[in-house]
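Consider the tokenized backbone below.
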């Protein structure tokens, strides 16, 4: 079971997804390839050595049995490349044919080499079957049972009249059980790695989705500030008598508000984009002197942020600078771009601009920070103003302000860091799993097969105590390794060095205290088990380190044999088959482990990263669509009708009621902009934003605050401030706003001396598309032209005890 982000539920929760994870899938694929290649190589090598050891008259018949087995192995290898061409039943039949043909060749070849060859081929094959058919254990178990039958049948046909030797059968059963157990251990840790990686990916996904939603929200608020809010504020102020610019601008504002944000993944020509900056109309027009050094092709994210920022800065020049001319320059710099707008107007002190004013903090600076760029405003009273935007190329992406990633600017450095961490985590889990599996094989093999051989052949060793001491030393190495691995810790380098030296010493002692004719034979308990102990010690190193150890191990045994004379051809054959079946198998397992750590882990990390990216994009797309619908629905009640009426001539800016409605909506938008500010008193901050809109229209507003501020939920703040925004928006000359805090409640009131008539505050709230909060009470009193409105909220009791 995998865990991923639940798309479409909108609550950020993760949902379980049935099926194996990428790590488990790739593990099964790697093990299948390993099993097929291992079995094919062993069949070829051991079959060839067995045919060489046969009598000349028996070679044709032996080849006639072994050649079809070789062909079946080739077919199985080809099926790895084209699995769709071969049904599973055919593959299972070819695997069974290899075992049967190898077993029937034992009585044909004859001699001691035949038994060793068949035991090696069948033993390695049934082990490999557990990996080839890892996801279908019944098929693997059936092939193992068939191998056991073939092994007994071959022994009976090879030695008629003698009871079959059950020791090889028992040894093969232990190998099969160990192979399955090793697979289950590694798979369990691979699944755990998949689950942990999926949980981490889901957490990252929620973080990225939240960051993109925050960035989209900022861009949405900046767009509202630059378009609808500015337009409605200008209408409410009654600026000028030439309103020819109003209708097309209102229609453009509607398009900007209704446009669905998407993933801008291409590039834009900044030269062409800056050529489209609107200069305004009539009294609000600013003539731009443009000097651009091209070409300037940059990603669309920073390109659009620069364009929108320049557009807002030009609007500020028209409204505040007192001049009707500005200079726009742009040039490339260090793989990025720089845009500069300057004017010779009255200037201002940037430090004195309140944080609630969005023209600089949101539309200019905030936009560039969101895409990994920067923006600066340089100005002093009487010296003009210079605004500069910089995008520093891809190097700037990772320095985005809060981690939010604007669509179209892929955060590759951060993605690489996450991918590296995922690969390291999966590799660590797979390494721990393979070490535990090899440790299990070492312990079980030593205390079953090797211990029996040591006890039965005590009279063969010269001296016996040396072999016993070597056995105890090897057991101590396994126990010491288990003490670290079972606690999930890595074996320290010093402990590994001493343990590896001890294993080499065991190999040398056992080789030189054994009669040469018994080397790799039944009394040689250490030859097949020493390599497993070294493997879990060297699992995290390169394969050549383990190959060097196996080379030294084989060299010790070969040297011990040659000290007592040259071996015969039969001895060479038996030693070759035994070396292939034990050391060759162990080396192949080391290669598999290296492949899992160096190939499967990165591939699993890449697959998980791609899946995470897809799920993240799906979540972002769904959440952005939902957020956009909710935002637009909140504007359709009042703001959209106003812009539609202004854009199509149904409403006139000369009408005082229209201007008053525009003032109310402008105040509501400014309150919305202030809602996300990080301030100590959000309620007072939002009220001041509404007061500033009224002051822009020439209204004189006095504001008083009494008591100690406390926390107020955002939904309650909206209901407390909205009556004030409506009343101030309809005030012509003077008003007074009062905020009274008590330990149990907060009250916000506004007194307007000459408030224009209009809908009540309750009706206005409903018209604005919101459901009022039940805990907020609103009272309204009208006397002539004066209006008094008070909104109050009483804190709920905590645990049934009223606050005092």
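A designed sequence for it:
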């Amino acid at each position: 079971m995998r865990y991923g982000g639940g798309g479409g539920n909108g609550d950020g929760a993760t949902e379980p997804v049935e099926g194996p994870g990428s790590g488990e899938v790739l593990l099964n694929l790697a093990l299948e390839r390993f099993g097929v290649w291992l079995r094919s190589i062993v069949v070829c090598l051991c079959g060839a050595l067995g045919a060489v050891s046969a009598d000349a008259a028996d070679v044709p018949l032996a080849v006639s049995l072994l050649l079809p087995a070789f062909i079946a192995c080739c077919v199985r290898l080809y099926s790895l490349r084209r699995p769709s061409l071969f049904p599973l039943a055919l593959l299972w039949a070819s695997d069974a044919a290899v075992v049967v043909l190898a077993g029937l060749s034992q009585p044909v070849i004859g001699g001691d080499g035949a038994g060793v060859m068949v035991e090696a081929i069948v033993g390695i094959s049934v082990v490999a079957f557990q990996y080839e058919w890892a996801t279908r254990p019944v098929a693997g178990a059936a092939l193992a049972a068939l191998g056991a039958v073939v092994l007994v049948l071959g022994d009976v046909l090879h030695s008629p009249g003698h009871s079959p030797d059950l020791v090889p059968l028992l040894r093969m059963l232990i190998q099969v059980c160990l192979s399955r157990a090793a697979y289950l251990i590694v798979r369990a840790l691979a699944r755990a790695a998949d689950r942990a990686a999926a949980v981490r990916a889901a957490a990252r996904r929620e973080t990225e989705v939240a960051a993109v939603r925050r960035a989209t929200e900022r861009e949405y608020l900046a767009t509202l500030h630059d378009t609808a809010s500015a337009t409605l504020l200008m209408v409410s102020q009654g600026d000028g008598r030439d309103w020819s610019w109003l209708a097309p601008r209102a229609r453009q504002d509607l398009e900007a508000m209704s446009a669905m944000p998407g993933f801008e993944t291409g590039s834009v020509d900044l030269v062409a984009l800056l050529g489209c900056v609107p200069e305004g109309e009539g009294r609000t027009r600013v003539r731009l002197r443009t000097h651009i050094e091209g070409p300037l092709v940059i990603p669309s994210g920073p390109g659009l942020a620069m364009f929108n920022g320049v557009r807002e800065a030009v609007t500020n020049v028209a409204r505040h600078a007192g001049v009707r001319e500005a200079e726009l320059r742009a040039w490339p710099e260090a793989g990025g771009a720089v845009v500069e707008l300057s004017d010779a107007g009255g200037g201002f002190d940037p430090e004195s601009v309140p944080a609630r004013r969005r023209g600089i903090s949101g539309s200019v600076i905030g936009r560039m920070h969101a895409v990994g760029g920067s923006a600066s405003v340089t100005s002093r009273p009487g010296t003009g103003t210079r605004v500069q935007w910089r995008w520093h190329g891809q190097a700037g992406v990772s320095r985005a302000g809060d981690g939010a990633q604007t669509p179209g600017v892929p955060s590759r450095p951060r993605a690489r860091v996450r991918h590296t961490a995922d690969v390291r985590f999966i590799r660590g889990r797979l390494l721990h799993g393979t070490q535990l599996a090899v440790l299990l094989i070492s312990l079980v093999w030593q205390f079953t097969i090797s211990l029996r051989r040591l006890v039965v052949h005590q009279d063969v060793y010269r001296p016996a105590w040396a072999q016993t001491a070597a056995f105890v030393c090897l057991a101590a190495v396994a126990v010491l390794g288990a003490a670290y691995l079972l606690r999930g810790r890595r074996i320290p380098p010093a402990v590994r060095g001493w343990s590896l030296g001890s294993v080499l010493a065991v190999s040398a002692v056992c080789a030189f205290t054994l009669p040469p004719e018994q080397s790799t034979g039944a009394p040689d308990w250490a030859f097949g088990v020493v390599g497993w102990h070294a493997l879990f010690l060297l699992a995290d190193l390169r394969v050549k380190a383990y190959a060097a150890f196996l080379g030294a191990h084989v060299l010790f045994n070969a040297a011990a044999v040659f000290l007592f004379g040259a071996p015969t051809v039969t001895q060479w054959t038996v030693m070759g088959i035994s070396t292939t079946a034990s050391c060759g198998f162990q080396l192949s397992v080391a290669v598999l482990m290296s492949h899992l750590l160096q190939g499967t882990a990165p591939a699993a990390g890449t697959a998980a990263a791609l899946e995470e990216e897809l799920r993240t994009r799906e979540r972002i797309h769904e959440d952005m669509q939902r957020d956009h619908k909710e935002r637009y629905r909140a504007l359709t009640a009042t703001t959209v009708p106003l812009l539609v009426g202004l854009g199509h001539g149904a409403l006139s800016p000369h009408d005082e009621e229209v201007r008053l409605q525009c003032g109310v909506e402008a105040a509501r938008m400014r309150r919305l902009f202030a809602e996300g500010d990080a301030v100590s008193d959000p309620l007072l901050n939002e009220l001041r934003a509404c007061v500033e809109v009224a002051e822009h229209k020439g209204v004189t507003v006095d504001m008083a605050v009494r008591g100690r501020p406390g926390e107020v939920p955002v939904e309650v703040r909206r209901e407390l401030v909205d009556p004030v925004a409506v009343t101030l928006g309809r005030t012509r000359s003077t008003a007074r706003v009062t905020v009274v805090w008590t330990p149990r409640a907060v009250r916000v009131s506004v007194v307007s001396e000459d408030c224009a008539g209009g809908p009540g505050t309750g009706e206005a709230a409903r018209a604005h598309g919101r459901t009022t909060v039940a805990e907020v009470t609103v009272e309204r009193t009208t006397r002539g032209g004066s209006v008094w409105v008070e909104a109050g909220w009483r804190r709920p009791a905590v645990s049934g005890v009223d606050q005092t």
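Confidence is low (pLDDT under 50) at residues 1-17, 395-413, 759-771, 799-804.
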